[in-house]
């Protein structure tokens, strides 16, 4: 067994998943998905428990996640909820609804001049961070011994969290007009994110996923990514007590792939709108797994037959390269038909047998 295979075994990967990642003859290309809004909505429809209670109750939250594992038999589960955990902990106000995830309502501060008013929150006391930590603890106590999956806690990326704390428009304007104060905000937020991630790991999460959609080239330029996102993601990955992270950036990311894969301890990059062949060529001999590229809108709106064909095309594109996992490009949309999810997973099993 190679050092990397041995590492993956210790990390918790099943032998089946490891062989799929390495594209070994007879193995099958792995398939996973990220789910936050989808699982909360499904749990609400199943139990009648409103979304605003699910996201503030660790027992409901972990059950909503584990239900997906029981139903779809995925190997990787992330406690992805909404992307407002950190901003709410800093004082932002959210709008809570009965069937979907909470949405931003009022930022914690409305001016960069107010940064000094922000106090770094305590992950064990402030906002909903204790709920996420408790969910990781419940996973370890009740489910870990009974399953072979990898349970990932999660944090927002520094750009995403900071833009929700300040307000996206003010944050984007500040990148140009007051970069020094933006760096000051990012530094403070990064400290909080590291503490939150490590608290989840201590509680029982196997690894950490980082959701950083606002850092995509759809939102900021590659130069801004290099200046404002990269150094803080690098610091986070070096300070988290995990051997590797999954970093998710949806949207258009092809221009930042070269910079993205330089972030140390990046284990999986979750992509949305990229040329997979070019991306795998850019990664080269680095051991970084690519997860993507199936559109969540496609999964929501198209037929199972169309989804099967799209998944087959992706499998044929990446071929026998290895280091690739079939995955939607973002969180599954609430209301995505179960038969569409199964079409994507079954297509992986049907067409993804190595050699392709």
How would you characterize the largest beta sheet?
7 strands, parallel
Q: Specify the structural class.
A: alpha/beta
- The parts where pLDDT drops under 50 for at least 5 residues are none
Approximate helicity band: 40-55%
Written overview of the protein:
With 356 residues, this protein is α/β, with parallel strands linked by helices. The chain is built from 16 helices and nine strands. The strands form two sheets. It has a seven-stranded parallel beta sheet. Strands 2-3 form a two-stranded antiparallel sheet. Helix 5 packs across helix 7 (129-143), helix 8 (158-166) crosses helix 10 (179-203) and helix 10 runs parallel beside helix 11. The two termini are 23 Å apart.
Primary descriptors:
356 residues, alpha/beta, TIM Barrel, seven-stranded parallel beta sheet, 16 helices, 9 strands, globular
Quick summary of this structure?
With 356 residues, this protein is an alpha/beta fold. It is 49% helix and 12% strand.
SSE diagram, text form:
Layout: H1 3-11, H2 15-21, H3 37-47, H4 51-54, H5 58-72, E1 76-78, H6 85-90, E2 93-95, E3 103-106, H7 129-143, E4 150-156, H8 158-166, H9 168-177, H10 179-203, E5 207-211, H11 222-239, E6 245-248, H12 257-260, E7 266-270, H13 276-283, E8 289-294, H14 296-301, H15 304-318, E9 324-328, H16 338-351
Parallel strand pairs: 1-4, 4-5, 5-6, 6-7, 7-8, 8-9
Antiparallel strand pairs: 2-3
């Amino acid at each position: 067994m190679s050092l990397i295979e041995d590492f993956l075994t210790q990390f918790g990967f099943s032998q089946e998943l490891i062989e799929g990642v390495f594209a070994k003859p007879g193995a099958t290309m792995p398939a996973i998905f990220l789910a936050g809004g989808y699982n909360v909505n499904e749990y609400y429809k199943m139990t009648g428990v409103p979304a605003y209670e699910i996201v503030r109750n660790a027992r409901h939250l972990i059950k909503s996640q584990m239900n997906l594992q029981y139903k779809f038999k995925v190997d990787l589960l992330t406690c992805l909820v909404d992307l407002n955990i950190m901003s709410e902990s800093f004082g932002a106000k959210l709008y809570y609804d009965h069937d979907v995830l909470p949405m931003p309502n009022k930022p914690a501060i409305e001016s960069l001049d107010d940064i000094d008013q922000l106090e770094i929150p305590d992950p064990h006391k402030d906002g909903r961070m204790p709920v996420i930590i408790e969910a990781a603890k419940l996973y370890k106590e009740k489910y870990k011994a009974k399953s072979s999956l990898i349970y990932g806690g999660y944090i927002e990326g520094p750009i995403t969290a900071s833009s929700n704390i300040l307000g996206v428009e003010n944050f984007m304007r500040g990148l140009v007009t007051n970069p020094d104060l933006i760096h000051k905000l990012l530094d403070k937020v990064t400290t909080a994110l590291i503490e939150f991630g490590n608290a989840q790991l201590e509680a029982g999460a196997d690894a950490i996923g980082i959701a950083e959609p606002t850092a995509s080239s759809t939102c900021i330029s590659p130069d801004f990514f290099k200046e404002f996102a990269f150094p803080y993601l690098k610091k986070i990955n070096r300070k988290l007590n995990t051997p590797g992270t999954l970093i998710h950036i949806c949207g258009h990311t092809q221009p930042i792939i070269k910079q993205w894969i330089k972030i140390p301890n990046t284990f999986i990059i979750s992509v949305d709108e990229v040329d997979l062949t070019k991306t795998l060529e850019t990664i080269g001999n680095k051991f970084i797994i690519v997860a993507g590229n199936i559109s969540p809108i496609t999964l929501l709106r198209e037929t199972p037959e169309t989804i099967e064909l799209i998944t087959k095309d992706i499998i044929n594109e990446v071929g026998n390269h290895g280091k690739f996992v079939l995955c939607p490009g973002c969180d599954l949309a609430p209301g995505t038909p179960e038969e569409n999810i199964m079409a994507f997973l079954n297509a992986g099993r049907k067409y993804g047998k190595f050699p392709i």
